[in-house]
Amino acid sequence: MFKSKKLSKLKNVKHGFFNKNGGVSKGIYKSLNCGIGSKDNKKNVKKNLKIVKNKICIKSKEIFLVKQIHSNKFIFINEKSKITNRSKEVDAIITNKKNFPIAILTADCVPILIYDNKKNMIAAIHAGWKGAYKGIIKNVINFMFKQGCKSRNTTVAIGPSISKNSYEVKKDFKKKFVKKDKKNIIFFKDSNKKIYFDLPNYVKSQVKLHKIKNIDFLNKDTFIKKNNFFSARQSIKFKHNDYGRNISIIVID
User: Minimal CA–CA distance to 63: which of 39, 25, 93, 31?
Assistant: First the structure.
């Protein structure tokens, strides 16, 4: 488990970015696969989710998850909400409920955890290139600000994801981003007739647009095997028919 130094300093919140280690799954899902939508044995995934919950020392019965669809949609959950686990197709969760752990799953995409320590509100965002391009980060932060959160009280932890040196993309991909904003050219690197995209720094730039200064950047590449994360791109490389998912979790204590 990896932690943000900045989030760890704050009271009333617990969090963690998990890699493959410490679970019960076998084969290509070894070992802490938390992807309930994967082809892994469901009993093992549920055991893994329980292991994560216990590591964070959470009183709640279960970790709240959604069905992620690479969108710019989010869900807000308060005390009055009656939304069942994994019933919504969105890519971010916002809540002000205590002892209500929220989490997102990734396998190269960027996990983002947010906490406003005055408003006591948290968010978990799944930001792949599609969601980031469509504005998932902007939508979540703008909503939190409308609820009374302030940039000076907000801490954002950007978790492990695929890095620029591992993320090869096509010409059309680059064109799409540069067409949207010419400044996006800085997130691309051309090397040996190949194009690489810096997804985590693109995500960081989206956060910075909201004048948030408390940003923690956990610079770990999920594609590099020794870092021991589940990686969709690694699974393609090894011709696996599926892959496990890393979990990133946050809860108001």
Answer: 93
Q: Could you tell me if residue 180 is inside a domain?
A: no
Identify the domain containing residue 222 by its residue range. 5-161+215-252
Are β-strands 214-217 and 154-158 bridged in parallel, bridged antiparallel, or unpaired? parallel
Instruction: Please tell me the total number of residues recorded for the chain in this structure.
Output: 253
Whole-number pLDDT of residue 61: 87
Q: Is residue 94 part of a domain?
A: yes
How confident is the model over 18-36, as a mean pLDDT?
Answer: 97
Helix/strand/coil for 131 = helix
Strand partners, 249: 16, 103
81 within domain boundaries:
yes
Q: How far is CA 196 from the centre of its chain?
A: 21
Residue type present at position 122: I
DSSP characters for 72-92? S--EEE-TT----TT--B-SE
**For 112-122, what is each residue's pLDDT tens digit?**
999 999 999 99
What is the average pLDDT value for the chain, to the nearest integer? 97
The 3-state DSSP class for residue 133 equals helix
Separation CA 69–CA 132 (nearest Å): 12
Q: Are strands 194-197 and 168-169 parallel, antiparallel or unpaired?
A: antiparallel
